Amino acid sequence: MSRVDYFHDPDAPEANSIKVAVSAFVRNHEGRILMIRRTDNDKYSIPGGGLEAGETVTTAVVREVREVREETGVDVEVSGLVGIFSNPDHVIVYDDGEVRQEFSICFSADPVGGTLRTSSESKEVLWIAPQDIPTLDIHPSIALRIERGLQQTDGPFFT
Questions:
Q1: Domain region containing 17
Q2: 42, part of any domain
């Protein structure tokens, strides 16, 4: 399913749903960030997915750890909470008519094994140096998660 992201756009359609998503900010021992190039919008992103009915956030994180492996080939362990990102000025329009307001919980994670590979959700998977992030086509909401993940803070970020 394709998608179009609107960010602080006065012409964006009104949201008709909210779905909790979880994402993983993963850095390797060299400080590089695990990134994917999404198949649905061709933008670079950190790995992630949605909370499913019947799951707790904790269950979703554990499942998404497996999903990170499925999307990227990299095994990870969750190490902390980057923040909770909920911006009503970021809506995602899907081709089935859903217009979703952003709501994402971003966790930090450490790589513990695996080998980079693509999947049906990722047409490219790479480790990218923080200083090279501006060279990629990244949605501003993902860029904010990366920025917050790179900052050393005493607690998680909340919008």
A1: 3-153
A2: yes
